[in-house]
Amino acid sequence: MSRFLRVAALCSPLPKEKVQITAGVEVMQKFWDEKLKSVWADNPEFIVLPECCDRFIAHTPQERMDYYAFRGDKLLNFFAEQAAAHNCMITYPAVFLEDDGIWRNMVFVINRNGEVISKYYKNYPMETEINDYHIKAGETAPVASCEWGKLASAICFDLNFDKLFQQYAKEKVDILSFHSVFHGGLLQKMRAYQCHCHLVTAIAGERCTVLDPQGELIASSTNYQYYLSTTLNLDCATVHYDDGNFDKLAQLKLKYGNNVLIRDPGYLGSVLVTSMHSEVSVHDMLKEFEMMEVADYLKRAELCADKSGGRL
Question: What DSSP string runs through 59-96?
Answer without folding.
Answer: --HHHHHHHHHHHTTHHHHHHHHHHHHHT-EEEEEEEE
